[in-house]
Design goal:
Radius of gyration: 16 Å
Shape: extended
C-alpha cells in the first residue's frame, strides 16, 4: 500500500480487508486456500502477480515455520520450561 503510493490509513484498511476477506472465504466455503486461489486469480491479473510474489519470497514456508515454532514453544511451556 504505502510503497505503492497509498496513504497509510488507506493501505492499512485495504490490507486488513484483504486478509479478512480471504479468511472468510476459507471459513465459509470450507475449501482449501489453493482451490480458492485458483478461483479468484485471473490469468495475468493483479492477484496472481501478488500470489507469485508471496511464493517467490517464501511466504508459505514462513507461515509453516511460524506455526511449528509456536507449537514447539507451547509444548515447552506446557512442560514448565
Amino acid at each position: 500500500g504505502v510503497a505503492a503510493g497509498l496513504p497509510r490509513d488507506v493501505a492499512l484498511k485495504l490490507a486488513a480487508q484483504t486478509l479478512l476477506g480471504a479468511a472468510k472465504m476459507v471459513i465459509e466455503t470450507g475449501e482449501h486456500p489453493g482451490v480458492l486461489k485458483d478461483k479468484v486469480c485471473s490469468p495475468g491479473g493483479t492477484t496472481i502477480q501478488a500470489v507469485r510474489t508471496l511464493e517467490a519470497n517464501g511466504f508459505r514456508s514462513a507461515v509453516i515455520e511460524a506455526v511449528l515454532a509456536s507449537a514447539a514453544r507451547s509444548e515447552a511451556l506446557g512442560k514448565g520450561k
